[in-house]
């Protein structure tokens, strides 16, 4: 839809004011902001209502943006803005606490994003069935027990303790390491199936009994790597917004708590920040919501998603930059951890 520059100014001004106040916006405040007369602004508002970009909740009330109005605003684009220094400092400090701990990284990332935006944040973990196994390591922890450590190309590290019916020795541990890295490293997680494990065990011949316990540990570690894992933060922030009264927040939080549902919700194109509005999300509980999300890359490979979930009346320029900043930083931190292994 092509709007005149004046209509575009009126629409953008209404969205900014409604975002800040949560109240319908009148023509007088818009006229003062953009320098047109109140009569001119009222005429433009009437046209925008006819176009379906504005709504008037009550006869005597001001106007609010419709979902189509927000979409028009987003499609028109907005100038990049700088993240305020206090927000950037908060996000940096929160993320840096997990600089060397991959297990805490996504938790801290969602905490940083929820705190900076005052919305709910979510993330999906790196991994998935297309990840390849980078290396397998073993650590002996007792006379007949050891820990298998499986590292993937997505930067994940999964551990499994296994027990043997025989005494372990440094020589046996070296055999485990050599054989697993020769036969397993480089394969995708989806290839590590029960059938593959059985065939591999048979191929060991007389050594099959020796390898059975670590092979089962590998199967469990591969299954865990292939499952989508999700992290959410700031769920209580939704209660700050009237759009989510009457149980709306509870329904959204329930959906976000389902890892498979959240993994599907945060599927988007890589390389840019994506925004879904209301009915575009495809779930009735999100009809008053917006999801701003970005994929993050680990060593150049798509690995997971970072997102903000809140009402449609959010400050999109700032939220977009915060999501972009966190996604880039998470990807860089995971890449650094992966290259240290």
Radius of gyration: 26 Å
Cα distance spanning the termini: 51 Å
Strand arrangement, largest sheet? 7-3-10-9-8
Give the integer mean of the pLDDT values. 88
Low-confidence stretches: none
Please state the overall shape, judged from the principal axes of the Cα atoms: elongated
Determine the fraction of residues in helical runs and give it as a percent range: 40-55%
Order of helices and strands: HHHEEHHHEEEEHHHEHHEEEH
Main pleated-sheet profile: 5 strands, antiparallel
Proportion of strand residues:
15-25%
**Distinct helical segment count:** 12
Q: Helix/strand-derived class? A: alpha+beta
Number of strands: 10
What can be said about this structure in brief?
This protein has 341 residues and is of the alpha+beta class. Helices cover 47% and strands 18% of the residues. A hairpin with a 2-residue loop joins strand 9 (289-298) and strand 10.
């Amino acid at each position: 839809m092509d709007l005149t520059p004046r209509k575009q100014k009126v629409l953008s001004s209404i969205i900014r004011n409604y975002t800040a106040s949560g109240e319908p916006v009148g023509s007088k405040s818009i006229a003062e902001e953009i320098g047109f007369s109140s009569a001119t602004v009222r005429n433009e508002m009437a046209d925008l209502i006819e176009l379906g970009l504005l709504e008037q909740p009550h006869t005597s009330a001001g106007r609010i943006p419709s979902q189509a109005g927000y979409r028009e605003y987003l499609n028109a684009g907005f100038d990049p803005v700088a993240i305020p220094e206090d927000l950037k400092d908060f996000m940096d400090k929160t993320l840096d606490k997990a600089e060397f701990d991959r297990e805490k990284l996504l938790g801290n990332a969602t905490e940083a994003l929820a705190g900076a935006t005052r919305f709910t944040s979510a993330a999906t973990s790196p991994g998935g069935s297309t990840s390849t196994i980078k290396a397998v390591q073993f650590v002996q922890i007792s006379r007949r027990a050891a820990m298998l450590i499986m590292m993937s190309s997505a930067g994940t590290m999964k551990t499994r303790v296994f027990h043997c019916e025989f005494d372990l020795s440094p020589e046996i541990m070296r055999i485990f390491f050599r054989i697993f890295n020769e036969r397993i490293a480089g394969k995708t997680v989806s290839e590590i199936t029960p059938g593959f494990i059985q065939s591999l065990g048979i191929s060991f011949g007389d050594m099959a009994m020796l390898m059975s316990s670590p092979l089962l540990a590998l199967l469990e570690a591969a299954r865990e790597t292939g499952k989508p894992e999700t992290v959410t933060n700031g769920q209580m922030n939704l209660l700050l917004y009237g759009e989510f009264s009457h149980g709306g927040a509870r329904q959204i939080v329930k959906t976000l708590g389902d890892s498979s549902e959240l993994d599907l919700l945060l599927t988007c194109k890589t390389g840019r920040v994506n925004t879904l509005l209301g009915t575009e999300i495809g779930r009735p509980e999100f009809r008053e919501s917006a999801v701003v999300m970005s994929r993050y890359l680990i060593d150049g490979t798509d690995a997971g998603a970072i997102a903000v979930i809140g009402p449609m009346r959010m400050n999109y320029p700032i939220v977009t930059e915060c999501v972009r900043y966190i996604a880039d930083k998470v990807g860089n931190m995971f890449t650094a951890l992966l290259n240290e292994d």
